[in-house]
Write a structure and sequence with these properties.
α8 runs antiparallel to α13, α9 crosses α14 and α13 crosses α14. The protein is an alpha+beta fold. The termini are far apart. It is 34% helix and 24% strand.
Amino acid sequence: MAKNLVVVESPAKAKTIEKFLGKKNYTVKASVGHIRDLPKSKLGIDVENNFEPQYITIRGKGDIVSELKKEAKKADKIFLATDPDREGEAISWHLANLLKIDDDKAYRIEFNEITKEAVTKAIKNPRKINMDIVDAQQARRVIDRLVGYQISPILWSKVRKGLSAGRVQSVATRIIRDRETEINAFEPEEYWNIELDVKGDDKKTAKFKYYGHKNADEKVRKKELKNKEETDKILSSMENRDIIIDSIEMKERKRSAPKPFTTSLLQQEAGSKISFPTKKTMSIAQQLYEGVDIKGSGTLGLITYIRTDSQRISEEAQENTKEFIINNYGDKYFKKYVNNASKGKKIQDAHECIRPTYINMTPDSLKDLLSRDQHKLYKMIWERFVSCLMSDAKFDSQNIQGSVSDNVFKATGSVMKFDGFLKVYSYAKTEEVELPKFEIAKEYVIKNTNGTQHFTQPPARYTESTLVKILEEKGIGRPSTYAPTIATILARGYIQKKDNALYITELGDIVTTIMEENFSNIVDIDFTAEMEMQLDMVEEGNEKWKDIVARFYPNFAESIRIAEETLEKIQMEVEETDEICEVCGSNMVIRHGRFGKFMACKTYPECKNTKPILERIGVKCPLCKDGDAIVRKTKKGRDFFGCSRFPECKFVSWNRPTGNTCDLCDSYMVEKITKNSKQELCSNKECENSKVKKTNN
């Protein structure tokens, strides 16, 4: 029997595929990602020779390459089964070069899901390497290398070592900085609301909100209340008056299921609904795609390919899901899905949306077989996909208008009469308000009148989810780049995350200003989006990748020359503290290093004493009582609480100690923050005071 070699990127993917193909006729090996790349130690691009990239075998990959070459010599056929995207196509091209595979042979296979049917079908339909896709990846890699490796040294010499710039990361940082500027410039405006509590015929109470006033012609004009004087005037005119019901409008309102997940939508929803950072979302999604050990079934890929901007669903997947919905919920719950590509945007239609590969593997059936985080993400993907082939939810919507003199008030309500897709999709918010019974032209007594002052709020700071959304809307980067981009600017200290919101740092502000003043194109949103469109043209075969680089580079090179000659060294302000250096007695100052802020002696370099900055929270350590409770960070940047006397005191807690003691068991109390509440609870899990009571902030 012929022996075949199949090469994939990851060992987990290799394990899953080998189970489908069998070891007798197939050997499945992993390249463990890229095997060739540009060198780390130098630019690696010959700008004098038409930007020819100088690829080398990645350091540490020698043994892997040797094993792949050995297996390739023994194989009758070689199949390169890397991921179905630009990156995967480029990896296959590099593999083909190293393994000396004939360019004219069809050996590239791809599949959207790791199932037996998909893999065996792909083996029967190999194709040649698509050099247009490879070239699109080469263009991106070369331009990003030129930008990163030529701007970063300038930042090192003019600001400090360890900094970097990038075509996407610099724009992302600028977006966050610009939002901070908006917030600082924001001037709140006063406005007022008036609410009436009115009992209906069934003794239930409805809230009527001020809408506007009636003119002499009885036409209603919407009006905003800007100050207390306006509000008091209206309240005064309503004293001792009842409300008369002018109209009652009833209509059916439909709510359709959201479309299935693309990469960016998955990152957004996972961030907002289950509080997953983008990096964590993509890591867990990769596990679910490549294969998870399922007891009784072996290793199975549970979801389709995770890097996609398509919302297409294959006919086979639609049929399987239709059968599942009808069998489990009934005919009335099924609704045919229409494959519509987004207008004005290039969609990789060979891909599908992100969906479960085995629709009958419900989240409940896998709850004990997946890790907690795997189950959370799988549940969201499964519910989103199934619900998109389900019927609209239907609501009875009610709008009631009443008037007090010439002041108009409105009450709105909504009651669900058919749950449709909401039967499955638990992440959709539904707020039902059933209004009391009222009659038109009838007067009702106002039980309570309330005028409240408000102020307009500044735009919200970006979270990882909303940053991903704006990057996609502006056409900056690709969904697969969002997670590593955010991780990079966090690691560089350009931004920081507090309570899920992203803040620009002093360093991020300085670097962004340098970029704007010296490399305006790189941080220009329109320019970056236009570059993405040009890369798409290369993939479509309508543009040569070296032509794109050749148009970009001359102006960029001139900007580099000018910046090197004119940019002065920037001294970041040093903040002096009250801390005294225990070595020489001088004050300590806050300095910035590669891994963030730290304290150093003011007299450096004479005294080289340094120590970490302790962020005290204002309470004593609950364990030793001598040290202070401080904020510490895990290697992944997650906050936790410890003692300033560590390692002498080993106190740790995920929740912030409050300094109070439980009145039931004398354990220390902590502040527990969930999505819907902030409460003080006992740290002792066995104590009755440790239970979270669901109340709003």
